[in-house]
Model the fold of this input.
Amino acid sequence: MKKQTITLSILLLALMGDAQDYVKYVNTLQGTYSTYSLSYGSTYPTVGLPFAEHFYSPQTGKNGEGWKYQYQADEIRGFEQVHQCSPWMGDYAVLSLMPEEGDLKVTDDVRGAAFKHENEIAKPNYYKVKFDNGITTEISPVERGAHMRFSFTGKQDAYIVFDGYTKYCDLQINPAKKEITGYVHNGTFVPGGFKAYFVLQFDQPFVRYGTWQKKSVAITKDQKANSGNAIGAYLQFKKGTIVQVKMTTSYISPEQAALNLQTELGGFKSLDQTRAAAFKIWNDLFKRVAVEGGTEADKATFYSCLFRANLFSRKFYDINKDGKPYYYSPYDEKIHDGYMFTDNGFWDTFRAQFPLSNILHPEMEGRYMQSLLDAQQQYGFFPAWSNPGMSGVMLGNHAISLLADAWAKGIHTFDPDKALAAYMHEATNKGPWGGSDGREGWKDYFTLGFVPPGEVHEYGAKTLEYCYDDFCAYNLAKMTGNNFYEKIFAKQLYNYKNLYDPSVGFMRGKLANGKWLPDFDPTEWGGPFTEGNSWQYTWSVFQDINGLINLMSGEKPFLAKLDTLFTTNSKFKVGTYGTEIHEMTEMVLGHMGQYAHGNEPDMHVPYLYNYVREPWKTQYCVRQIMNKLYNAGPKGYPGDEDQGQMSSWYVISALGLYSVCPGTDQYVIGSPLFNKATITLENGNKFTVMANGNSKTNVYIQSAKLNGKVYTHNYITYADINSGGTLELQMGPKPNKDRGVADADKPFSLSGAAR
Done:
């Protein structure tokens, strides 16, 4: 083992050269101390490459449970291939391995082994745990597979158990080739013909082997093949051996799975080489966002969040023998040339994760935008939460936000006329299932100007989000000269006004006859809104904050309401939920009034002071959120991490920016966490944010320069970033109340500047 450690050190140093080690800051256990009733992230210690097709993770829960790994657990039951983007969605294409000694225990109910966190290493490129029984497991990833190593103690018979998970599995054991091959079919949102073809290649001979079935708890020795629900296999090895396993998976064919193994793992003789290669990939990405200053704890939180901001959406394509991308479509079950991406809920991620990726990964985002149109052609509707196929979960038609945001930022890889025609279909039809499959209540929305209660749930939230989505379509049409669709969607731009009741000062539900839904209480959750209340949803007018200010009778009443959001009590009524859900609990634990950073609807709200001539309150507020609600530990998030959204909020906010209105080219300015942050862009340019004098107390911007010129605006543009340059801020302990207060300093709004 000492020799292996020395060899690995030499490999890492050779790959790094003089580069700084950023991977050391990342803790993939961040957010893993979570339960059904309280989330500190609901994450698992992901071992994988950026946006990879497959990830891997230790498994503390039983098969099929949403929380794969809980920090508070003391046993591990297996090491899974995972794709889960949320515990509320479940997983798919799962299979696992588990090392054992002594008596053979095959099912997840009984095979758990005790471990302690001090014997665990959890990094993006490498996971290691030494069990209390002395067995060690190590994992390092490639894009479409993983390299595992199991080190046995030699005290008893050594086994590796293969588990085909909860549903159908077909497997074959080939002792001559030292392989297990086959496919699994599992997952809630997978089509009927879906198959995840796998190949597992071992470097040690099998002493014995066999298969097992969970339902009957039957173990069949020497059986080379088996199929059925909840089945698996076992392999026996020589006592005390060290077993390496190379594994890859493909949704296309067994041959492609084998090709993936050859192309991605064939060049690595040992796990140490795979680990070093994965380290370089992650470190190269992290050094593209190089921060200086701040504390070591700040850097750990920043790079742990940057890690999770670069996991989803997942690549859902393989590379064929000619080096070309192609994929099995979860939408029409056919094989297509090109790129496909999946495992992302746009209701969560349109807000920050995609605007961040448009800065860091415009080439990938260009491919992604075309894949959205391809998916729409294959299924009939845009994906809204793919997992891997259409789920219909959540609400809104936010694919159009992604498309408009990409176009506004110069990513022109798709036909905007086709995108607008597809969105028109989306906005005037209801899909087969779910609240985000097409548009629920679309007829009322277009005729009444809002969605009333009745057949449609969460009707207030849907009205507000449809209005924003229609703005995105309008803006895409305007940017591309499509007068037809510009005129169509211009008619809905101000529908949000139909839900604002000036007598109570909040958005609220409205009946079809135009009367307000009775018994209004802004602290009551549910009803018209999704996982929130009127305090959080009243601000969901991303495209027209000035218009919302006007509805509230001007800047002073708006400011008073905004201040009160953060300073009032955190009392709530459970409303139509009937019981306290975890988002309510997390709001209370945040100690920021009715502001609920643990969920998405009001994540943009701290930045709204930039629209009412008090940007220093944004500067104070965002630093409070970063410092109090985030850390790099198991309780690292104030709620569900949600496919990179919560992490992206932190990352982009720590850089001093935020995308209040995706679909435009602006990023609103906050308060950078670090003294200096340098973003290396794909085009080779560098954009630097300098925060001179920055500290825990010096959070207020005293003055600003953009590329050497005095800068007073409360926003910058994507072009400012992508062209390279420097945003230089002078920070201080007290607000400069004369900066950023002119009408011209306000960020984008549809309506003119309010007073």
The radius of gyration is 26 Å. Residues 1-7 have pLDDT under 50 and may be disordered. The chain has 19 helices and 36 strands. The first helix runs from residue 2 to 16.
